[in-house]
């Protein structure tokens, strides 16, 4: 039996003195736009298990969780722009979820083959609660139920090679904001909820293999993930700067491969009787097929938005252990691959031919270094450098903080763009008890 309680508080302090008005032209905006959001969660999990017979393990469970989201928002207009208060970015909501599930696994053929299967029934209620400054609101409750399941098998073909196959389903219920929103975005747009939204559902199948060599391991998999009724925002036809939540008109399909690898280089070289340590590691994935079948017919791309076509991480760790002062140095590289994105940024015409243009973010690498030494038992002195080569990039945004700027200066409020943090140096002491 487990229990948990979580409180998450976000205090957003925004301002957008110049915004995009309803005509698409610059308009007076806010000198301050404060949005406070507090999420409180309490839950419990009961998860008994039993061995029914040799090689058979049964797991049953009950999950219960209740949560409440509360937000406030205060805006101050720039001189000459008296503002009425508007609703927060998120509607107030309460949610209670109960779930019953059962999973069984059976080992066969001297434990070389393992079969497993499980099913979960979820019962939930989402309550749209009174939200500050939301006109015409009608608090209500929406009940939802869903059955999801998973099944799979693993087969130990040899002492080193293991094969696996799995299939699973999932779902996500719409939030109160998605069902009943009416809020103004920071840039001046407006988004409305949709009480007719259906839950998102997903179906995933994966086949993989893992091989353990002498001092090294590799794991590879191929997968397909299909998301139906994905909840998205769509521009309202004929109404400038206004969007509605909607279910995607078609499935989102992603097919790809994943690869993981790690190795102990000194063990491979049979140089094991030593305090020296040297390892390498890598992981990544490549989505060779990613299609949004519900994309608008006029869209310039049918790629799934905000999904990397490929990404990877590689690194090496070198040091000593088993002595008085254990130490290590790690070099770690992260590759963010191409991504397609219809940005909300206001860009110049040369960077964005039309407002609904779907951009392609180019791939880039970021390198980090970390070193540490154990000065006492459980106490380490460390230093790290993030973004070692001071890369001026961002995983999502198109308009970066550099010149010439891609941002439309009329809406930029004096900025040139948004970039991730540059070269960063940290140092400190870490203690474990």
Structural description of this entry:
This protein has 433 residues and is an all-beta fold. The chain has two domains: 1-248, Beta Barrel (Maltoporin, Chain A); 303-433, no CATH class. It has helices at 176-180, 265-268; strands at residues 2-20, 26-46, 49-53, 56-77, 93-108, 113-128, 140-156, 161-172, 182-184, 190-192, 200-212, 216-228, 231-235, 242-247, 252-264, 276-292, 310-320, 327-336, 339-341, 359-361, 364-376, 379-386, 424-431. The two termini are 26 Å apart.
**Second-tier CATH architecture of the largest domain:** Beta Barrel
Question: How can the largest sheet be summarized?
Answer: 17 strands, antiparallel
Distance between the termini: 26 Å
Secondary-structure content class: mainly beta
- Our count of domains comes out at 2
CATH topology of the largest domain: Maltoporin, Chain A
Share of helix, binned: under 10%
Total number of β-strand segments? 23
Roughly how many Å is the radius of gyration? 26 Å
The assembly state of the depicted protein chains is: single chain
How do the helices and strands follow one another from N- to C-terminus? EEEEEEEEHEEEEEEEHEEEEEEEE
CATH superfamily of the largest domain: TonB-dependent receptor, beta-barrel domain
Regions with little confidence, pLDDT below 50 for 5+ residues: none
Question: Regarding CATH, which class of the largest domain?
Answer: Mainly Beta
Proportion in β-strands:
over 45%
How many separate helices?
Answer: 2
Mean pLDDT: 93
The best one-word shape is globular
């Amino acid at each position: 039996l487990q229990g948990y309680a979580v409180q998450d508080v976000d205090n957003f302090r925004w301002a957008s003195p110049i915004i995009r008005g309803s005509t698409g032209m610059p308009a007076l905006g806010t000198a301050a736009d404060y949005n406070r959001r507090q999420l409180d969660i309490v839950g419990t999990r009961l998860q008994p298990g039993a061995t029914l017979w040799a090689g058979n393990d049964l797991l049953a469970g009950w999950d219960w969780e209740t949560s409440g989201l509360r937000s406030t928002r205060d805006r101050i207009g720039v001189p000459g722009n008296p503002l009425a208060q508007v609703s927060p970015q998120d509607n107030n909501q309460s949610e209670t979820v109960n779930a019953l599930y059962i999973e069984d696994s059976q080992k066969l053929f001297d434990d070389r083959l393992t079969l497993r299967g499980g099913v979960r029934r979820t019962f939930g209620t989402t309550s749209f609660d009174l939200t500050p400054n939301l006109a015409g609101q009608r608090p209500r409750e929406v009940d939802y139920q869903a059955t999801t399941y998973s099944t799979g098998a693993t087969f130990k073909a040899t002492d080193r090679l293991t094969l696996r196959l799995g299939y699973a389903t999932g779902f996500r219920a719409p939030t109160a904001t998605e069902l009943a929103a009416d809020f103004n975005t920071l840039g001046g747009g407006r988004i409305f909820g949709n009480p007719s939204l259906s839950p998102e559902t997903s179906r995933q199948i994966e086949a993989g293999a893992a091989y353990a060599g002498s001092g090294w391991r590799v794991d590879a998999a191929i997968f397909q993930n299909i998301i139906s009724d994905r909840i998205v925002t769509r521009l309202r036809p004929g109404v400038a700067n206004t969007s509605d939540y909607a279910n995607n008109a078609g499935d989102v399909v992603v097919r790809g491969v994943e690869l993981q690898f790690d190795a102990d280089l000194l063990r491979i070289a049979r140089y094991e009787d030593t305090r020296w340590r040297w390892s390498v590691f890598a992981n990544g994935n490549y989505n060779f097929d990613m299609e949004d079948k519900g994309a608008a017919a006029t869209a310039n791309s049918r790629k799934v938005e905000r999904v990397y076509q490929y990404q990877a991480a590689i690194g090496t760790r070198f040091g000593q252990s088993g002595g008085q002062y254990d130490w290590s140095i790690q070099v770690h590289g992260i590759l963010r691959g191409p991504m397609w994105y219809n940005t909300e940024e206001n860009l110049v015409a040369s960077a964005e031919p039309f407002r609904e243009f779907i951009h392609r973010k180019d791939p880039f690498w970021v390198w980090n270094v970390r070193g540490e030494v154990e000065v006492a038992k459980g106490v380490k002195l460390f230093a790290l450098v993030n973004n070692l080569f001071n890369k001026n990039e961002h995983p999502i945004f198109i308009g970066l903080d550099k010149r010439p700027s891609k941002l439309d200066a009329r809406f930029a409020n004096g900025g040139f763009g948004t970039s991730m943090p540059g070269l960063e140096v940290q140092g400190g002491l870490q203690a474990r008890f």
